[in-house]
């Protein structure tokens, strides 16, 4: 039987979480030779996911540097992948979402006329600087992709409006929902004992992440000030802030919230710990993209600390609300959820529009159809 070689490329923790179940599905198919290349755009946080899902990369570019620039990341990915592609000659590469690894990977494949599959294709804010550089990474990757795997019908329609041929766009659901089927456990005990000591039954525990580039400076400062006031004004609230390792973020958070009562400042957790914290918490406040998909799957309201989102489906479904970085707006919306059970129920019981746990299987079925290896009937999400 003729096999095709599929090389999956990712470099950050969010990509790894969402690509891990897809890698496992690729490995299960007899007609596919699955290879994995990590760029290590992130290092420590990426390695945690690789260990959790027992993925051993065939190639590791190990590009991460202290205070790395977007130009430096792009150059190192292009140069590293040129060598990998020359040696391996894959039939298809898969990239995910919106990172610099994603765009540079697609560009490197284009330079060698290798087919590109884009997982989580079609998300848009329609503002090239928000989120930065992710919005343009997505758009540029779409222009290079041969197969587009969109998580929702809305993301598919974005691609069609940009002139992408409908025959190469498929609605699959989001692979992060597949991943959560492996990570969330009902009676989970945390490795981080500080998390085990929190009273999730009687406290309203808010899980926080905020680190995006467009929020650096005043945005992060405002978020921290709002969080401080929320804790002061609501004695039942306990805050768990997973602080990004970047000193541009960490220094501000430590200065504003360090040592404060009922505030836990923790380093980013591994995927299993983070998903189970999300499952136990009261609500989520974040500027992350992925958490906007993950938390609604667990029935947790999400306040998005950004002015725009490339995931409007969750806003429309009522599971997510945009609050930006204005102190007053953050406090107002957080206090509604903390103090109004009807507001909380409205958001926590909304339907998650992002997946059914079968995205990875759909994607690999589509790949096999594309290369003439099988004739699957594709039941799109």
UniProtKB/TrEMBL annotation:
Keywords: Isomerase. Residues 24-368 form the UDP-N-acetylglucosamine 2-epimerase domain. GO terms for molecular function: UDP-N-acetylglucosamine 2-epimerase activity. The keyword Isomerase applies. It comes from the Bacteria. The keyword Coiled coil does not apply. It is an enzyme of class 5 (isomerase). Its EC number is 5.1.3.14. Gene3D superfamilies: Glycogen Phosphorylase B (3.40.50.2000). InterPro entries: UDP_GlcNAc_Epimerase_2_dom (IPR003331), WecB-like (IPR029767). Belongs to the UDP-N-acetylglucosamine 2-epimerase family. This is UDP-N-acetylglucosamine 2-epimerase (non-hydrolyzing). It comes from Inconstantimicrobium porci.
